[in-house]
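Reviewer comment 2.1 asked that we show a complete input and output for one of the modelled complexes. We chose the 5-O-phosphono-beta-D-ribofuranosylamine case, as it is the one discussed in the main text.
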Amino acid sequence: MAEKLRIGVLGSGKGSNLQSIIDNVAAGKIPVKIACVVSDVEEAYILERARKHGIEAIYIPPGKHKTKLDAESEAQYVKCLKDRGVGLGVLAGFMRMLKEPFIEAFPNRIINIHPSLLPAFRGLEAWKQALDYGVRYTGCTVHFIEMGMDTGPIIMQAVVEVKDDDTPETLHQRIQVQEHRIYPEVIRLIAEGRVAVKGRKVIVR
Ligand code: GRF
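Response of the prediction step:
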């Protein structure tokens, strides 16, 4: 039998998306091995979740920049994933932008989940941006990473209706329910070799 795709999950926060991936792998729904979970925040709960499930949890200091990794740090991230045979990088609430060396080491092999219907509301707290703007529908997007913030080819989206009495918290909660559904689904499709990128378009067979 072919070896399972090895994924490396990167996150800076609570890791609820990691949990949904762990649960789907455990249920036999996604044919991947979670090789490691890596964080730029030493005390991030995502690392604790990984340890609880016997997954290698690694903290790599990000360096002095706030929104990206220092060059040496970025090289360590790449080496860490390569050393573990990772074939797909999965960003799950990783709060720093990746630069050329990382992206070139994993061409069309890094995915991200963003809490809006891209290209609307890139950047931070996208659910709050959507609420403040007054849109009726928002949602979440899984996309490949390329240079640029939240701009890569879109793989899958899910729509969430905005309610009149939503707060940022209630809206984000409902978006996360959809995130936990579509992120494992995309990972499954990639693991099954059913996702191809043609320019800006993603073809799912
Ligand atoms: C999610 O809302 C995701 O869309 C965004 O960061 C958040 C991560 O949440 N990129 P969690 O750490 O997976 O709970």
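The CA atoms of residues 85 and 107 lie 15 Å apart. We note this here for comparison with the apo prediction described in Section 3.2.
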